Amino acid sequence: MEPFKFSYKTEKEDAIMVNIHRSGYQKCSAGYQMGPLSRSVYLIHHVVSGKGYYVAGGQTFALQEGDTFLIYPNTVVSYFADQEDPWEYYWVGFLGADVKNLLSKTDFTPQNPVIRTNHSEELKELLLQIYESSGGEYYRHIRMAGYLYLFLSKLVEYSESHEEAVDLSLEYAKKAVDFISEHYSNPISVFDIAADLGVSRSHLYRIFMKNFSISPQVYLEQFRIRQSRLLLEQTALSISEIASSAGYDDPLHFSKVFKKLYGVSPRGYQKAYRETQQQKKG
Q1: Half-sphere exposure of 242 (CA within 13 A, CB side)
Q2: What positions does the domain HTH araC/xylS-type occupy (predicted)?
Q3: Phi and psi (nearest 5°) for 43?
Q4: How confident is the model at residue 12 (pLDDT cuts 50, 70, 90)?
């Protein structure tokens, strides 16, 4: 056999430094809650069964098997198990010089610190390996770090925002707008829009920020309010009926959102519009 050699030189010279702080797994009792609390490290939980809820940044995320959520350092959060189907999860806490940059290449964002992939079993296995490698010996620290690198590399690999593919951002944006236009009168949420497109909520957030410079939640609200304004101008429907037609179950909440956008209540807007129309006719 002729002599041969295979080699590969990495393009990036910067080292990645990540250190594990803690790891473990837990099967929670019904309603079991952690927090409100804050951590000094990054903490990732991966749900392997059951359901639970994660509260962060004023938002509550309903989670289930396959979901992974990130707790940012020095951020007050809480999370608790479902009463009927309490969750089980694996977790790992870590710090390091390059952690912030590394996580920015995943689908995690402070606005949406939750991701879902189709590779739950693979992520679970890596977190289990981290835990089973734990111990005081130095070689165990190296082994744990190795499995953590593999785990984080998978999150980056699965990240929709870093796939080396054709940028479908504009196409997704158009589909999202079509979905909103068709279903805004129903009680749809950002989760429903993301599900229809087949993307994560964090990916949907980036799509809207890139194409509209606002979040999908803000876009949805503004669309609903614009439609309600047309109903105020063109119909004799009551405020409650208009609120319902625009996808709002609560007329008071509808009025609050409308006033925030236009500086006047729906009834006040309707009255001013009709007076203006009368003056034009007169």
Answers
A1: 25
A2: 174-272
A3: -135, 120
A4: very low
Q: What is the CATH number of domain 166-282?
A: 1.10.10.60
Q: Where are the domains of the chain?
A: 19-162, 166-282
Task: Using CB atoms within 10 Å of the CB of residue 65, give its burial: 0 to 12 exposed, 13 to 18 middle, 19+ buried.
Answer: middle
pLDDT tens across 238-247, in order? 999 999 999 9
CA angle 58, 61, 66 (to 5 degrees): 150
- The tokens describing 113, both together, are 């610190």
First to last CA, the chain: 100
pTM of the model: 0.57
Give 248-259 pLDDT, tens digit per residue: 999 999 999 999
Look at residue 181 and give its three-state secondary structure. helix
Average pLDDT, the chain: 86
Out of 2.60.120.280, 3.55.40.20, 2.40.30.10, 3.40.50.2000, select the CATH number for domain 19-162: 2.60.120.280
Nearest to 92 by CA among 149, 136, 43, 132: 43
Under 8 Å between Cβ of 194 and 160? no
